[in-house]
Amino acid sequence: MRRVLITTRLRTAPDGSWPFRTIPDHYGFGIGRFRTHGYEVVTATPPESGWTGALRRLPAHLGTRYGDLAFQAALWSERDGVDLIFDPWDVKGNALALAGLRLTRALRTPLVSYIHARPMSEWPTWQRPARELFLAGCDGLAAMSSSVADELDSRPRWARKTRLVVPGPDAEYYEPASRTGRDIVCVGKSLRDFETLGRAATRTTARVHIVCPRSAVTPAFVRFGPNVTITTADDRRLLPRSVIDPILREARAVAIPLSTLGSMAGLWALFDGLGFAKPVLMTRHPGVPVDIEAEGIGRWLGLRDEAGWADALQYFEDNEDEAFAMGQRARALVDGGLNSVTFAESMARVFDDVLDGKLG
Questions:
Q1: How many angstroms separate the CA atoms of 182 and 201, rounded?
Q2: Domain range holding 197?
Q3: What are the tens digits of pLDDT across the range 293-327?
């Protein structure tokens, strides 16, 4: 059994396994299924004492976007006891320092990263040197979507270590409803444009239910129509799955309005929709790994396109049967292979290829 160290904090069981049936396993990037493919998952925990413990008392990010120093130190302490290091969160996680050390060969353990955002086109110029360093230091690059893979493939030194690995929802977790629901539901906290959705809904007869952090509520919310329901929750954890899941399961469709295209967001909400057999209305983002319109499972909308959102919301309000048919096609995609089982298999092949010298 090979050992793989995960570079992010994940709420795993003590043995490193994922808590199946409690949280969809795609929230942990499929790590609960790695053992099936010969990889034991190792997680790092910063100790309370010593120099690493002192780092824990520092501000987590120290004004940067590159992770938690104490956690990075804990990762470093685990490096020699594993066969490979897996960074699920791209350069925005804890692996930048590890990539730099790998590039200089101070780190001997191979490093594989899951790349979410297009490598250069979505980054400010001043951040690109760090991005270049990160990509150069990784031994394997797993691209989330074809747009990410295409940009990586455009550079020979990145192309030779790139594989397309499309994520998908935990098919076993979701129990789809046998009928269409009433509300169009928007659940989320990261980079959401709730204002455009609420204003658009107010122009329609569609019933829209927004579940958002308390901090996301703005003065504009008071002008939303009576057909828009707002449920607020804790900023960090939103609502527990036991509350969110029944809301989503009884939805007519899932809405994912994004406030920016600079980062990948809304993926878990997309997977909730597919898992529960719901059509999806989403701001078009090049990083999304499935074309919801081409697959006949939803509608793309433009960034801050209030009129477009209003039209789409009214369409799903008026076409209940088509909404249900789209949802059934969405679930068929999941059952046909767009799921976390396939993701884990594909990621394990990337690990194998890196360790066997076939990638990098």
A1: 14
A2: 184-335
A3: 999 999 999 999 999 999 999 999 999 999 999 99
- DSSP tag of 217: -
Q: Is residue 107 part of a domain?
A: yes
In a domain, 330, yes or no: yes
**Which residue in 228, 146, 223, 193 sits closest to 303, CA to CA?**
193
Provide the 3-class DSSP secondary structure of residue 297.
Answer: coil
**Mind giving me the DSSP string for 146-164?**
HHHHHHHHTSHHHHTTEEE
Burial class (CB in 10 A: 0-12, 13-18, 19+), 332: middle
Q: Are both 247 and 102 inside the same structural domain?
A: no
Name which of 37, 3, 31, 36 is nearest 17 in CA terms: 31
* 49 compared with 19, residue with greater pLDDT: 19
Task: Find the farthest-apart pair of alpha carbons in the chain and give their distance in angstroms, rounded.
Answer: 63
> Are 32 and 77 in the same domain?
yes
Tell me the pTM: 0.89
The answer for 38, left when phi > 0, alpha when psi is -120 to 50, beta otherwise, is left
